[in-house]
Design a protein that fits this description.
71% helix
Length: 366
């Protein structure tokens, strides 16, 4: 049976997924500009939750494809090289992250803790407050390090790539919600910091994406039939709609009291997010012509990482300017201007900083 993997070339569908994810996060945090007006716009803060979950699903799907193509390839002539995988990941994520941490250190050195250097900030409220949005990066970085290592060790033990890869994915898909159920039952943690941002309890968010990558690689015909048509995308949108309807009458703070919200709700959104990513990739896979839409999507996708890292500081600056305003229209214009500044900084970052490290990465890991 012919095995297929996710292509390294840019895919418009996956770029759209990345755009949706970052725009959801930006809109959610942008509700702070309208919070004082107490409108229904405040409910859009839930989009931030969806945005991060889509990022997790996308990361799992892409990393799964990379691992199967470049690291755990069934062709025995290819030596397993985990270090090369780690090096390529770290060259993409760490340089900009540490630059932002350094800038924040110069600005708020009193709140800096060493945990932010090792992605351990999720274990401590004080450490996370230094760079609040880095919580999702902490989960992703530990996932990038830990899961491939586990798969490597299982493959080395069993000599079976397919069962080992899929088995590890399924293990964490099952383990994480069970761990959350035990955590909530025994210690009654908060929804956000106590569960959502805890590393070992969130690995299933990316494992679903990896499982789909595994299905595509090992069972291409089954995968092709599974994602045929628009049913996958429609299913994911229904899942997001159900999640949003569940959230709106409850509100975010009350999630701290709900068992389902702190346990299986994460699984439900993770499944919806992974289906959304795969559905978008398949539906738009043949769209390649360049036009304003595709150029815009490509730009937002390429700059999404830097936009995620810098947007809270930019928003914070403009919120101070907007603090004395009592006109919702002016607040909206301030928010739009803040968005433009975010993408201006992100564009400069990608073209004059991130690209350098990507080229260096490619040169070193040839």
């Amino acid at each position: 049976m012919k095995q297929t993997t996710i292509s390294n070339h840019k895919n418009l569908g996956l770029d759209i997924a990345r755009c949706v994810a970052i725009l959801f996060v930006l809109i959610a945090h942008g509700t702070l500009f309208f919070w004082k007006y107490n409108t229904n716009l405040n409910n859009l803060i839930m989009l931030g939750f969806f945005g991060v979950e889509i990022f997790f699903a996308l990361s799992g799907y892409l990393i799964g494809g990379i691992l199967l193509k470049d690291v755990f390839n069934s062709d025995n002539s290819k030596k397993v090289n985990l270090f090369r995988f780690y090096l390529r990941r770290w060259f993409r994520t760490l340089p900009l992250y540490y630059i932002v941490v350094f800038v924040l250190f110069l600005k708020n050195r009193d709140t800096f803790t060493w945990q932010n250097l090792l992605f351990l900030q999720n274990f401590d409220h004080k450490s996370l407050n230094f760079f609040a949005v880095s919580w999702s990066l902490s989960i992703e970085e530990w996932f990038y390090f830990f899961i491939p290592l586990v798969i490597f060790l299982v493959i080395k033990s069993t000599r079976k790539t397919k069962s080992s890869f899929l088995g590890v994915c399924l293990f964490f898909i099952i383990f994480s919600p069970i761990a959350r159920i035990l955590l909530v039952t025994l210690s009654d943690p908060s929804f956000d910091f106590g569960v959502r941002k805890q590393i070992l309890f969130r690995f299933d968010a990316m494992s679903y994406g990896m499982l789909f990558a595994g299905l595509r690689h090992f069972y291409p015909n089954i995968f092709k039939n599974l994602v045929k048509g628009k049913i996958f995308l429609i299913t994911s949108l229904v899942g997001f709609l159900i999640s949003f309807i569940y959230y709106v009458p409850i509100q975010f703070g009350k999630f701290n009291e709900l068992f389902f919200a702190r346990t299986l709700f994460f699984s439900f959104v993770a499944i919806s997010s992974s289906i959304f990513v795969v559905g978008l990739e398949k539906i738009t896979t043949n769209i390649s012509s360049k036009n304003f839409f595709t150029i815009l999507v490509s730009f937002v996708s390429l700059t999404s990482y830097s936009a995620y890292l810098v947007h809270t500081e930019v928003f914070s600056l403009f919120l101070k300017i907007d603090s004395s305003t009592n006109n919702i229209l002016i607040s909206g214009l301030t928010f739009l201007f803040a968005l433009m500044v975010v993408f201006l900084i992100s564009g400069l970052s990608y073209n004059y900083f991130e690209k350098y490290w990507l080229k260096l990465r490619d040169k070193i890991t040839k």
